[in-house]
Design goal:
about 350 residues; 19 strands; LRR_dom_sf; Leu-rich_rpt
């Protein structure tokens, strides 16, 4: 033991060492990496409540006890390279948590209570079995790094996660992403890595600045990898062989070249108005239909691509498909607008940069 730090990694422990109990009031950091510990006993959480840093990576841990919430001073928890299949809801009570590392486990979901980790800055969950992520994670307003690589069942990341106010780095390489978000936090976001997702068919123009240097890295889509249980809208584009995939929430997708500038529906206007209230309590109550409250919890699909407008797009949009004129390789970029007027204005001012592509709904 060095001061308040205990290094007991690589010692072939077959269970949590009872010797820890003798120094429970002195230790703040515990390193038990690469042992054979099968579980975290309740006494560890109850008697070591002063811990700030715990590293249990590379063990054989299957379950995390509910008592984990007793480690109320915990700032960093590393449980990577274990056999964990689920996290307890009590994980959300670790309000001082800044770093949570869970890579290389057998997790299929994160509890929605993880959204209560108000000080969380780093979340690593690579090489698990996620098919979805809780939208409540967007409540972690201090989150800066989100690492999701090698979750081969993950087909979509909630759009609201890309609007976290301090987010700087997102990596979701080698997943099975079908869709990318149309709304991103351009103020702080510096790196978005989504390469080797062979089910992607287009790239929202909001993410273009992160993609442009690596256009040559894009690989042709593999339609057979698109999950059958993933619901989406499909668009056929003359420029490419495969259909393009869009969120199922977009129930009305219009082409500016053959549609009138009709007003938004009452449902769309209602969703925009409720979203402006920014009060979760309003739509968590039962007075709103479930399909509407769910839309509000998940947030808008996009913001209007015409920057002076930037109205929320929930279920109705005018779609533009383009490619860069001076780019040798065809990469389809997509942009959504709230009205025909906004779409026409955008194309008028960007016609020298982008070439508009023909498309039809399938």
């Amino acid at each position: 033991m060095n001061g308040k730090v205990l290094h007991w990694s690589y010692r072939d422990f077959r269970q949590m060492p009872e010797e820890l109990r003798a120094c429970c009031d002195q230790v703040e950091e515990v390193y038990l990496k690469e042992n054979f510990i099968p579980s975290v006993p309740a006494w560890f959480c109850e008697e070591m409540s002063g811990l700030k840093f715990v590293c249990l990576a590379g063990n054989l841990i299957v379950d995390v006890p509910e008592q984990i919430s007793l480690l109320k001073h915990l700032e960093s928890l590393n449980l990577s390279q274990n056999l964990i299949e689920a996290l307890p809801k009590s994980i959300g009570k670790l309000r001082n948590m800044c770093s949570l590392k869970l890579s290389e486990n057998k997790l299929t979901r994160l509890p929605k209570e993880i959204g209560a980790l108000e000080n969380l800055e780093i979340l690593e969950v690579s090489k698990n079995r996620f098919s979805e992520l809780p939208v409540e994670l967007s409540n972690c307003h201090k989150l800066k790094e989100l690492i999701l690589d090698d979750n081969y069942l993950l087909c979509r990341i909630p759009t609201k996660l890309f609007t976290i106010p301090q987010l700087t780095y997102v990596s979701a390489e080698r997943c099975n992403l079908v869709l990318l978000p149309f709304v991103v936090n351009t103020t702080t976001l510096e790196h978005v890595r989504v390469f080797n997702n062979y089910t992607l068919t287009h790239y929202p123009i909001a993410l273009e600045k992160f993609m442009q240097p690596s256009y040559e890295s894009f690989t042709a889509v593999e339609p057979k990898r698109i999950p059958k249980n993933c619901f989406y809208q499909r668009v056929s584009c003359d420029a490419i062989a495969q259909n393009l995939i869009f969120p199922i929430e977009l129930t009305t997708i219009l082409d500016r070249r053959n549609a009138t500038n009709a007003p938004s529906s009452l449902v769309e206007m209602c969703l925009r108005s409720c979203n402006c209230c920014n009060n979760n309590a309003v739509w968590s109550d039962s007075w709103l239909p479930d399909n509407l409250s769910r839309r509000l919890r998940n947030g808008p699909v996009a913001l209007c691509g015409s920057i002076p407008c930037s109205k929320e797009v929930f279920s109705e949009c005018f779609l533009g498909l383009v490619k860069r004129r001076k780019q040798s390789r065809l990469v389809v970029l997509s942009v959504l607008f709230c009205s025909k007027l906004c779409a026409d204005l955008w194309f008028r001012y960007n016609c020298d940069i982008y070439e508009e592509l023909n498309w039809v709904l399938v």
